[in-house]
Amino acid sequence: MSHPDPRTADAVRADVSEQYTRAVTEGTGCCSINPPAAAASSCCGPTAVVPKGNAAKLAGYAASDLASLPADAVTNSFGCGNPVGMALVKPGDTVLDLGSGAGIDLLLAARFAGAEGKVIGVDMTDAMIERARANIAEAGAHNIEVRKGVIEHLPVGDSSVSVVISNCVINLSPAKAAVFSEIARVLQPGGRFSVSDIVAEDLPDWVRAIPDAYSACVSGAIPEQDYIQGLRDAGLTDIEVVDRFVYDPDQILGMLESDLPGFAERLAGMGITRESIAAVLPTLQGKVASIKVTGRLPA
Ligand SMILES: C[S@@+](CC[C@H](N)C(=O)[O-])C[C@H]1O[C@@H](n2cnc3c(N)ncnc32)[C@H](O)[C@@H]1O
């Protein structure tokens, strides 16, 4: 289940964290890749004129929800779906968001959890945590707490949350089995989870050789059936893929150019041109998708 990346888990996390620090301080916000309406507009990349935040609008959020959030939370959304919903989070729930970023899903979940509920975000990147706390303050939400930590060893007690959510983060973990076990550990019996994430089948070596393809949520992704099996192996049940969007090659290029700033320059430094990537892109047809997967811990 661990991704066959020759780097240590700590090195992978350090690189991902550095990339997301730059993304939130300099970038244009596009790890989110995008449903059909978005296909016409190249979300990401040096030539794109799409502002930060476009990704979030394209990733399954209601326009009215986006309009009601602090602009910065929308601008700095890096998700690939919308894991939160009224059917999932109920008043009084304790919700945990794995890799909470700048806080978009924390804020939405907090509305459903209400004053008697609580929302906890965990992220390893200081710049993201600062941004989330600022956005929470701006929204005036009093039922959200953000903790620093890694999702493979959550700073959260056993059986202490009723709902786990996550948006485009587990693909970035170098130890996915540990993350799935942590979901099972922190959930109360009968607790639910809803995760939006990238899955990928049989990625060719040239993708894995591209610098930043991991942080861009592509080359750390595992096949959908491995993802589901990993959740099952952790003791989770009623697992269902409730949404799936398969990206076309141009959208995958958008992910690779996902405005983790400096991507084009780093590629050029390795002698890789955009054209050379574009030429092999068709080999990715049908291989990369975002899914929304739900389930629960047995009661
Ligand atoms: C693609 S962004 C998604 C952020 C947020 N969920 C959203 O939808 O905007 C990935 C986030 O996960 C965090 N992250 C990645 N790997 C992590 C890990 N192993 N432990 C904790 N945080 C992690 C990053 O710091 C970053 O904030």
Strand order of the largest sheet: 3-2-1-4-5-7-6
Per CATH, the architecture is 3-Layer(aba) Sandwich
The tally of domains stands at: 1
Largest sheet: 7 strands, mixed
Relative strand content: 15-25%
Q: In terms of per-residue confidence, which ranges show pLDDT below 50 for 5 or more consecutive residues? A: 29-54
Helix content: 25-40%
Name the CATH class: Alpha Beta
Spatial separation of the terminal alpha carbons: 26 Å
Helix vs. strand class:
alpha/beta
Mean pLDDT, all residues: 86
User: How many strands in all?
Assistant: 7
C-alpha geometry: globular
Any idea what the radius of gyration is?
18 Å
Total number of helices: 12
Structure description:
The protein is of the alpha/beta class and 299 residues long. The protein has one domain: Vaccinia Virus protein VP39 (Rossmann fold). Helix content is 34%, strand content 19%. The chain contains 12 helices and 7 strands. It has helices at residues 9-25, 54-57, 63-68, 71-75, 104-113, 126-139, 176-186, 205-208, 224-233, 249-256, 263-269, 274-280; strands at 94-98, 118-123, 144-148, 161-167, 187-200, 237-246, 288-296. Helix 1 packs across helix 6 (126-139). The longest helix has 17 residues, at 9-25. The chain binds S-adenosylmethionine.
